[in-house]
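Collaborator request, handled under Task 6.
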Amino acid sequence: MSGEIKVPSLGESVSEAIIAKWFKAEGDAVEKDEPLVELETDKVSMEINAAEAGVLESITAKQGATVEVGAIVGKIKVGATGGKKAEKAAPAKKEEPKAAAPKAAAPAPASSDKNPPSVQKMLAENPQLSSSSIPSTGKDGRLTKGDVAKAIAGGDGMSVRPATGPREERVKMTKLRQAIARRLKESQNTAAILTTFNEIDMSNVIALRNEYKDAFEKKHGIKLGFMSFFVKAAVNALQEIPEVNAQIDGDEIIYKNYYDIGVAVGTEQGLVVPVIRNCDQLGLAGIEAEIGAAAEKARKGTLSMADMSGGTFTVSNGGVYGSLMSTPIINPPQSGILGMHKTEERPVVVNGQIVIRPMMYIAMSYDHRIIDGRESVTFLKRVKEAIEDPRRLLLGL
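C-alpha cells returned to the collaborator:
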C-alpha cells in the first residue's frame, strides 16, 4: 500500500511553498514521524514527517520546486522494509569482500549531503577542508556558509588557503527573504516613519539582575535577561499612551486593549518576529519563559504562522550584534517599534560630576500619521524611567 506525502495547510493567506530539501532519497527506509522534506514559505520553514513507516517509493517534487497546499510531493510504500540502497549493498559485500574497505568510506558523502547546496559548493571549491572537522552551528548538525567561511579564514586555529571560487555568485532569494524585503519596503512606502532617541543608564537594572539572577534561575528554571525588563517597560508605556498600541485601518484608528509584543529574533534564514501574548498579564519570569521558547522554535525553524501573527508592538535588540544606534523599521500594520542597543560604558554628568556609567541608546520608530512627537517622546521617556528605576515595574508606574 502506498501512502501519499501531501503539502499540509501552511497558515492563513499562504497557499504555496518551495521544496527546500529532501532528507531522504527514493528507496530509503523511513520511520513513522521521521522528517522527510523541508518546506519554505514566505513566512516560516516547516517539515513534513512520515505518517507511516516504510520505504520512500517516489519523489514527485524535487528540491527547488514550488508546490501548492494539498499537492502530492512523494509516496511511501507503507510497511515495506529495507530499501533500494540496502538491497544493493548486501551482494556487493559477498561478491567482493576485498572491496569492503573502500565501501566503508561511503557514509562520508552522505553526511555532506545534508548540508545546503551552497555549503557543498564551498567545500568542493576548497578540497583541503573536511566537513567532519568543521564545527557546525546549523540545524541538526548541518554546516552553514558562515561555518565554512570561518574555516577558510583560518578560524578556531585552522590554517588553510583562501577560497579560489568565482568572484560572484548568483543565488535565488528564499521565500522568507523575499517576504522580508517586500514587507519592509511596503512599510517605508506606506507609513510616515520617524525615529526619536533617548539614552538609559543601565546601572540599576544591571545591579538588580546581578543580585537576583541566580535565585531567579533556581526558582523559575530560566535565566533572567534584560529583554523582559524592556518588554514590561514597553507595556507600561503602551498602557499610558494607547496611540502607540493602535493601528490605522483605512480612515479609522483601531485602539487595542491587549498587549501582544513581537520580539525580533535573527535566524540563518532571516529576521522573524514571534509574538508574546498578553504581556500585561505576565511577570518577568513568564515573559522570559515565553521569549526563550519562541527563540528556540525560531532557531529550529518550527515557528508557525500563529506564532508570528497579531502583534501590537515590537521590541528589537540590535545590541546583541554590537549595534550602538539604529533606526528600526516598523513591522506593519503596527505603528511603533522599540530598538535596544549595545550597553557601553561612557562618561556622563550626574549631579554636576563626570562619572562612568553603563549607557544604552534606545530608539523608537513610529508612524507619524497616528503618533505625534509628544506621544513618541513621552513613550520613550517612560521606558527610560522604568529601566533606570526598576521598582516602577513592580508598582506599574
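The cover message to the collaborator said: "The first helix runs from residue 84 to 95. The domain at 1-103 is CATH 2.40.50.100 (OB fold (Dihydrolipoamide Acetyltransferase, E2P)). Please let us know whether this matches your experimental observations."
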